[in-house]
Design a protein that fits this description.
By secondary structure, this protein is an alpha+beta fold. The protein is 23% helix and 40% strand. Strands 2-3-1-9-8-7-6-5-4 form a nine-stranded antiparallel beta sheet. The protein is globular and about 45 Å long.
Length: 183
């Protein structure tokens, strides 16, 4: 139960990958490294470290099953808890970071662009939170995002993301599954 909300953060972990698309990123296999901190709840950092350690020590059969489940959603596992995603050429051409756009359970508002940097606000339903983000596209194969969200349940959530394109070939990983449209 304690780590339930960590899985709820999965959409946030991948949320700002599309943010860099507005200036065109290259399609292919991307690795996303996250640093998530919860200054108001230090025990969460310990839970996340414990979860990473458990992932490392999973029996091969259990790890394979988990990787298959994640791959079904277009997500792979990289080293040290990094996530790997396949970005299709179509997705790489899209411009999803715009005022009012919803990605997962989060909606972009107050979006502004200056050169290769986007800033704005995120309002998320799960976990219920809101805050500011800044995404900088360093090149077509590298971007970073910083986000500071506040949640009544978890307090402040600081996220730093670094994403790099690893390869034009995604191997067996399929493009990120699109969430079904909500009625």
């Amino acid at each position: 139960m304690k780590s339930r909300w960590l899985f709820a953060l999965l959409p946030l972990l991948t949320l700002n990958l599309p943010a860099a698309h507005a200036q065109t990123i290259e399609p292919g296999l991307w690795e996303i490294k996250q640093d998530i901190r919860t200054p108001d709840r230090p025990e969460i950092a310990a839970q996340m470290a414990q979860m990473r350690e458990q992932m490392k020590n999973l029996p091969p059969e259990a790890r394979k099953m988990m990787e298959q489940q994640m791959a079904g959603h277009g997500v792979g596992m990289g080293a040290d808890g990094a996530l790997r995603l396949c970005i299709s050429p179509e997705d790489a051409r899209q411009d999803p970071i715009r005022e009012g756009h919803t990605e997962g359970d989060c909606t972009y508002t107050q979006v502004k662009r200056s050169g290769n940097t986007w800033t704005g606000r995120l309002t998320c339903k799960e976990p219920l939170s809101q805050g500011d983000f800044t995404t900088t596209l360093h090149s077509a194969t590298h971007f970073t995002t910083q986000a500071a969200l506040t949640s009544k349940e978890h307090g402040r959530i600081d996220m730093n993301t670094e994403a790099r394109r690893l390869s034009a070939d995604c191997g067996t990983l399929k493009p990120v599954a699109k969430p079904a449209a909500k009625p």
